Amino acid sequence: MAHDLIEKLREACGRENVVTHPHQLRTYESDGLLRYRVTPRAVVLPGSAEEVQKVLRACHEAEVPWVARGSGTGLSGGALPVEEGIVISVNRMNRVLEVDLPNQRMVVEPGVTNLDVSKAAGPTHFYPPDPSSQIVCSIGGNVAENAGGAHCFKYGFTTNYVTGLELVLPDGELIELGGKELDRPGYDLLGAFVGSEGTLGIATKITVRIVPVPEAVRTLVAFFEHTSNAGRVVSDIVAAGIVPGAIEMMDSLAIEAAEGATHAGYPSDAGAALVVELDGSEAECEHRFKEVEKLCEGNGATSIRVAQDEDERQLIWKARKAAFAAMGRVSTHYYVQDGVIPRTRLSEVLERIDELSKEYGMPVANVFHAGDGNLHPLVCYDGHTEGEAERAEELSGKILTACVEAGGSITGEHGVGYDKKRYMPRMFEEPDFDAFQRLRCAFDPAGMANPGKVMPTPRLCGEVPGPYRQHPLEAAGIAERF
User: Stretch 347-360: mean pLDDT, rounded?
Assistant: First the structure.
């Protein structure tokens, strides 16, 4: 059966677009979370919606599970393959299909990178959600994870910008949700799909909202002895009614790593760096920017650097956006975590993270979207020492517990995926999971789309009519029947 399926995939997409060689398959055995690896049976790269339909029909008929994949930059194991399953990579579907500036809409294929969406809309417009990986991450992956980024405090997340989708359901049926208009009547199935982590189908065309480039942008980075000082600035800015385009914070370890990689001029002895960017009308930016500078000074800023031109602004941002990758300069291995807390609990949770760091003897760098309380602790460990990866994972889990106990969430923008499904019961009860499962089964009754992700215990979609027969996911140990 497996051989027949591979031949059908080759007929659908061309032999050159079906990967089966063991060495080539290793490219796809994990996403950005390298902690887990599974080699798939094959990888197929369709080039059109019609080819995606043929691929999913073939998988449906063969009862073979599949995992959709964009650029593979996800950090929660959402694109981790299923053993003996198929990975469907959308990288070849990378065309910008329409740029409609008068109506502030674009239509793109899922393999277009996030940054290329803004480039195609420029120079008069841009696409606000901007993950740190925007140079390489795909818009299809952004839809799957409901990606955010530095400017989401003011502008919102991916779900606030997707107005329409063409998608293929797991049985191969092509449907459309939404369109160019903002809000169609009826149930919000579009909202259900965005952030569904590849468990409901594969988007083949994505209609997004773009917005005009603001008249003015002003950016500064202020340095403090401690993150608590910077945290108070964040609270004061929000209390003053100022809505920055972005407020980003880095602690001393993150500054050390980022400065070493980018040479952006961040002082090596700073305990915290706070990047604040205002945008809007020239008059508003000028007035509000002075207020922000005063708030930084009033909370003990040791120095303030204001970007004098676009080059300096880009340099300030380069340090911030390079922080994740730059951690390799201070630690051979690190575990990227993603949690959300109420902004007012920032100091308390950062203190708890510091306690856990000392308890485990593992440095933890903090880089985060301070405006919306979205933390990204980076747990550093030595992966060459047996048991350290497991201890780092345990420490990361306790950080998430601290986030939930503070009234927050186990994820802000990286998704649940495979890595964090075990923590879902800390936020949801069984009736919640039952509701999630009913929604999932409405799109994918056979349970073939990205099984084993999001839900803490994989389940099947009800009993099969007639005599009992073992489901392929049961046989693979992925799901169980209740």
Answer: 93
